[in-house]
Amino acid sequence: MPETHVGQSVFRKEGFDKVTGRARYVDDLTFPDMLHGVTVRSPIARGRLRGVQFGDGIPWHEFTIVTAQDIQDIPGANCVALILEDQPYLASDTINHPEEPILLLAHRDKYLLEKARRAVSFDIEPLPAIFTIEDSLNRKELIWGEDNSFKSFLIEKGDVDAAWAQADFIVEGEYETGAQEQLYIEPNGMIAIANPAEGVTVWGSMQCPYYVHKALIKLFGLPPEKIRVVQAVTGGGFGGKEEYPSMIAGHAALLAWKAGKPVKLIYDRAEDMVATTKRHPSKTRIRTAVGKDGKLLATEIDFVIDGGAYATLSSVVLSRGTIHAAGPYNWPNVRVRSRAVATNHPPHGAFRGFGAPQSIFAMERHLNQVAQTVGLSPEELRRRNFLKPGETTSTGQVIHEKIDLSFLLDRAFSLSDYHAKKIRFAEFNAANSTEKKGIGFATFMHGAGFTGSGEVYLSSVVGVEATPEGRVRVLTSNTEIGQGSFTIFSQIAADALGIDFDQIEIAQPDTANVPNSGPTVASRTTMIVGKLVESAALGLRQTLIASGLLGERYSADEFAEACRQHIAAHGELKSFSKYEPPPGVHWDDEKYQGEAYGTYAWAVYVAEVTVDLTTYETRVDDFIALQEVGKVINPVLAAGQIEGGVAQAIGYALYENVVWRDGRMVNNQMTNYIMPTSADVPPIRVYFEELPYAFGPSGAKGIGELPMDGPAPAILNAIEDAIGQPGIQTFLGQIPLMPETLMKVMTTGGGND
Amino acid sequence: MRAFLPDYELKIPANVGEALRLLNDEPGIWRPFAGGTDLMVLLEAGKLAHKRFVSLWSLPELRGIEASDSHVTIGAMTTYSQIQRHDVLRAEFPLLGEAANLTGAIAIQNRGTIGGNIANASPAADSLPALMVYEAELELISAGGSRVVPYVGFHTGYKTTLMREDELIRAIRLPRLTAGWRQHSRKVGTRKAQAISKVCIAAMAKLDGVTINDIRLAYGSVAPTPVRAWKTEVALKGRKLDSATIQTARAELLNELKPIDDIRSTADYRSRVAANLLVEFLNRLNQL
User: Fold this and answer.
1) What distance in Å separates the CA atoms of residue B21 and residue B166, rounded to the nearest whole number?
2) A284, A422, A740, B232: which one has the fewest Cβ atoms less than 10 Å from its Cβ?
3) A357 and A288, same structural domain?
4) What CATH architecture is B60-175?
């Protein structure tokens, strides 16, 4: 019997191909007679499309040209199927955001194609557009539905209205977060072959093959078996390849259908940044009642996100943000009102954390304000209010895990030398007029898997298949996008089967060959899908044992022999496992009450900063990320997830500012959209606590999104610690906190404008 | 790539004479192409309006760094990497190497040239303020001969220069007069590497005890061209270096610089940080 693999930092399954350049990304693929495609987009934010002109000097007869009219000529529908069906593949009449796709071109020569793209112009009668949450809420223009609102939620716990009278203090604050670009290393791209005889096949960069599958069924009106979606090796996603690939796949397929030839449609960085989804900007108002003993009595949270021009995933992003808004605290009374509103920005979409980083930023900044008002340290205020086993979250979910947040806080403070540094920095600051140092922290939780009944609706299925040689292939639609999921699945399957890691293969996600195990999102791949891998593998083992071909203990050779004999006798040897919710989980989608998630990961992050008073730049000097994530399946990969997430969140907090002009991102290049480099990122020291979760594989929980939640508030809390002066309220309520904003705060005392 | 490549032409001349003849015979048709670190970005983005270029990359006449008793002469095609490695430049003109070290990535430093940087005339170019405080001279050559012009004054407006269409920059000459001067530079670009300046300073001063004997201040990214802060220099020259002088100079600089808002930063930030950078320099002089 080989030693176990779970808990070991085994090498990445696909790592060798990636580092040697053998891995084939979509732009590496080519087909005979293939054309290149390009998308022609709206130059303005809102208007009515009156006509199209094709300029001189281009041999237009050589081009395949697709407009909304062509979609009317096929049986399907001109909408990207996701949640609501409001977003067209190609605008036909109304333009709702800058860069909205209007027309598609394909040609053999991709340089001539670019020249042709520039020669197309549109007659658009402009309509007034709106770009802010306020203008949308005030219905300055009505641009979507009856009230510009994609979705709203209300969570009620206890009696908030009755609590104000008992409060010793009432603290109010307003917090804002900006858009953020995912900046996966590989821009989006797809190749399609599509014709009436064979149906539609696409290869591309994506997180969720079955989302693309569903969208193409709707677009072409074809039966599911006539649509095939294959994931090519994908260079990162972070949520940015959750929904938008359905759009690109549809475009490539429409061109291929009309041309009768394969079409490759690859975005360059500028197009990817300007046209595809980003993190939802948000605005949060919080009003909190607190006793003079520091007991949190009630909070009323108003959380609004800017969804952009179409509904896409905004309702689900809003849901996660709403549920996470109250944080890991024992509030007796909570009201969270939340809305996702329409603007004429390109639709905002999925991005690691999915609404939670926005509302957690607000609460973790707010509690520092509350602490200041009450006269307690940020630490003491939180200790007096941490959620403990037996207590309930804002949705009334009873915490059954043996989580001890005060212990996590103690450990994080000890690892970061928090208390000693507080003293040392105060001395440093008193003696130094050009630099100020500070230390701050945030405490938070993140629910893993789909919200509420989401996993039940998904009903994910995973398969495993044995070969006569005793190798086992895992069949899932979950994608490897840089996070190491193929390695994790292999570790889990190898241990469940008692065979070696190298005997496990992971099928490349291809809807013709793998079952629908749901999307690769929501920190669900290890915890939910990994559990299904484990049970499918155990099922295979049971089959072999029950058939008498295998004993309870066996060698690799015996396992292979058993597989060979079983296949010889019965044909293919497969085992499938379907998602079953853990017992006792109830969720009320109407009242937003109950078990919002099967489990949560819990964390305390501590940031140490230096603020340069000459340039108002903030440097993060040290970072401690301590989290409880259940069983760690692969320590190197888990730490890598946390380090990468923290680096991305440092960008969110201090560097990455989307500059909008009339609803369009104007700094859509990496020279002007400043993501931090390795020279800007501090040592990120990652530590785990492990409380095994009964319904995760070997006790694992999800971790992918968690590290995005905590760094921004921890860093701003540290900046406040650095530059704050007794008696002067320095209000930092906005990210990204660019040096320009910090300058304004420090020189005029007001940052939000 | 967003450019239609067949529209472009890049000619590789056998020697500098041939390059100058092309520029002379068809004025305005041909433009110099140095390291290409700016032009290739425009090409990739489909924004390179000019179509015909003559490559200067392999012309030995435009390469090399030579030190005489009075000057260091830097060939226009000298790369940022070469500048950083040159001993005399490191010892006497450190601001140039500091700027070169912060320009783009290492691959850009291996390809980008000092002459190309001058001719490209970006107000955000990192090495140009250093050339301003070193009072560099440019040797311009054409088919008709050559001339030497002071670098200060070379930029006449946003992306415009004194250079004629038939001319090339052959070399940059730096007078070896930095002994006894204190030198300082700082680039502010929000991130530590691969940044474009929001504001940058190159400064040098000569002190006589606590009196500022002479001072030169130059800034990038605060005007349509790199600029010397002449009025602020005047306000400082001959003055005692104390807090009153520093405050006067700060006020003068805020009055003198008129930066703008753009995609990278704001006018307010640039003004205040430019002033803070001046104060930082003067305070350091005070501490030495």
Assistant:
1) 8
2) A422
3) yes
4) 2-Layer Sandwich (3.30)
Q: Which residue of B has its CA nearest to A113?
A: B4
Q: Which domain holds residue A488?
A: 15-23+460-578
Query: Looking at the structure, do residues A442 and A471 belong to the same domain, yes or no?
Result: no
Same domain, A379 and A312: yes
**Tokens, residue A485:** 């999921």
- Residue A108 maps to which CATH number? 3.30.365.10
What does the pLDDT look like over A391-443, one tens digit per residue? 999 999 999 999 999 999 999 999 999 999 999 999 999 999 999 999 999 99
Q: Across the interface, which of B41, B45, B265 has its CB nearest the CB of A740? A: B265
CATH class of B185-287: alpha beta
With beta carbons less than 8 A apart as the criterion, state whether A324 and A145 touch: no
Task: Give the mean model confidence (pLDDT) for residues A252-267.
Answer: 98
Nearest CA in chain A to B275: A614
Which residue has 């407006």 as its token pair?
B157
- With respect to residue A552, please indicate whether it lies within any of the assigned structural domains: yes
Number of Cβ within a 10 Å radius of residue A726: 4
> Domain B5-55 class?
alpha beta
Residue after which a domain boundary falls, among A254, A275, A296? A275
Paired tokens of A116: 């042709």
CB atoms within 10 A of CB B67: 16
Percent of chain A residues topping a pLDDT of 70: 98
Compute the radius of gyration of chain A from its Cα atoms: 27
The rounded distance, in Å, linking the Cα atoms of B148 and B173 is: 9
State ipTM.
0.96
| Candidate from B4, B46, B188 with C-beta closest to A615 | B188
DSSP letters spanning A369-398: HHHHHHT--HHHHHHTTB--TT-B-TT-PB
State whether residue B268 sits within 8 Å of chain A by CB.
Answer: yes
Q: Is it true that B60-175 and B185-287 share their CATH fold?
A: no
Cβ of B191 within 8 Å of Cβ of A672? The answer is no
- Number of domains observed in the structure of chain A: 3
Residues A101 and A81 in one domain: yes
Residue in B192, B263, B276 nearest the CB of A667: B263
A42 falls in which pLDDT band (50, 70, 90)? very high
Quote the minimal CA–CA distance from A98 to chain B in Å: 18
> Can you give the residue ranges of every domain in chain B?
5-55, 60-175, 185-287
Token pair 């960085």: residue: A269
Mutate to test the interface with A, among B190, B200, B271 (most CBs of A within 10 A): B190
Question: How far from chain centre, in Å, is Cα A577?
Answer: 26
